[in-house]
Automatic annotation (TrEMBL):
Residues 144-456 form the Aminoacyl-transfer RNA synthetases class-II family profile domain. It catalyses: tRNA(Asn) + L-asparagine + ATP = L-asparaginyl-tRNA(Asn) + AMP + diphosphate + H(+). Keywords: Aminoacyl-tRNA synthetase, ATP-binding, Cytoplasm, Ligase, Nucleotide-binding, Protein biosynthesis. Its main location: cytoplasm. It comes from the Bacteria. It is found in: Cytoplasm. Homodimer. Belongs to the class-II aminoacyl-tRNA synthetase family. It comes from Pseudanabaena yagii GIHE-NHR1. It is an enzyme of class 6 (ligase). The lineage of its organism: Bacteria, Bacillati, Cyanobacteriota, Cyanophyceae, Pseudanabaenales. Pfam families: tRNA-synt_2 (PF00152), tRNA_anti-codon (PF01336). This is Asparagine--tRNA ligase. Its EC number is 6.1.1.22.
Amino acid sequence: MTSARIIDLLRDGQTNDSYTLRGWVRTKREGKGIAFLELNDGSSLQGLQIVLPQTIDGYETLIKQITTGASIEVSGTLVESMGKGQRVEMQANAIALFGTADPETYPLQKKRHSIEFLRTIAHLRPRTNMFGAVFRVRNACAFAIHKFFQERGFLWVHTPIVTASDCEGAGEMFGVTTFDLNKLATSGKPVDFSQDFFGKPAFLTVSGQLEAEIMATAFSNVYTFGPTFRAENSNTSRHLAEFWMIEPEVAFCDLEGDADLAEDFLKYIFNYVLETCPEDMEFFQERVNNQVMANARKIVDEQFERITYTEAIAILEKSSKTFEFPVSWGLDLQSEHERFLAEEHFQKPVIVMDYPLGIKAFYMRVNDESASDRQTVRAMDILAPGVGEIIGGSQREERLEVLEARIRSVGLNPEDYWWYLDLRRYGTVPHAGFGLGFERLVQFITGMGNIRDVIPFPRFPQSAEF
Ligand code: 4AD
Ligand code: MG
């Protein structure tokens, strides 16, 4: 059972050739002795018009049963289309029905549905134009990411989902409970025996970085690409409880090299999506945000801005804009500050470097070459217009004693990090890396306003359907 993909026929299907297609009906129009269907199989934004003459076997019965959402198989000849906006259409000579979709109850009828409504039917929204485009672009981004790193000789390494360490030290981890549903306590509730299972409390990872560092100190250049979890109670358009992260880790690299890699990386992904998903990008431009194409071109063509945290604070302090949250050296940048810098001040991505030590994670390299009361670390964040922070990275502390002291000073126990310290004890090297939030990247490229609409099954507070 082989059938053609609609995208291939739209792009370079030969007229007068015969094909078999399978997919879901988007619309049906009936004329005298003829019907027109728009068929979509998910391979492209545009469906293929199918012309059904009434001479086809079973026409009378089938045409009543085939409504929006029905799944069908159709065979026929590809012909030049007289219709506007399509090169070809199919003149059908056989059709079969897999499943009907009762128009009384099927929610996706031919009209515009609000994005909020579609969020309540996450199991059906992939069949709409908007979510079709989002998930195709998401797929193209994932492929571009692997292509970028593989072409540069990076090894894709698989870091654990279940872990005992809190990489970011923010204490926002989901715990792993281990139930034996066959053993109920006297209360009738299942018994949690996680402690027995792992021997210590276990959590879902917030980042694969620490383990990626292990691999980088053996393979030089590595990257992770996997799910990460954060129990932040953030009900915003940029936070998820479960999101995907890409984390390259590079041995013999400093912060400047890290920033260069991140900039090349983002440019590469944008370029790839512009080349491979032109129709979907056009859709976002027309339906979501009329700046999408201009932004994308700018990412590819223009250099990112690079400033220090201290310079960022000075810009924010000088600006005439009133911010909700205070701006002062030593305080973290809030989303409104990040967006001001990227969207209004520079109007392009900004790489902010050298943040205060007090607001960053323990593993970042301390800038202590010159003594200063404004102690900073070799951290960088990349701020994107419309999204804010899209990448967070740093040069890592490679000096054993400095790292041990930092671990202690943030209240962690160096003994818990014995393996991490071993990397500094044996053959330590300068190294750096960063984390790209995959969903924030997809938001950035598509212009979609809410992060819950760029992942098929979003996880956020009070929501874990499916
Ligand atoms: O800045 P973060 O916390 O950095 C790290 O986890 C480092 N260990 C990365 C590294 O150096 N290897 O997270 C990295 C990125 C953020 O810039 C953001 O894009 C995304 O992950 N992110 C989230 N995306 C969606 N929902 C959340 N709750 C997110 N938290 C972080
Ligand atoms: Mg961050």
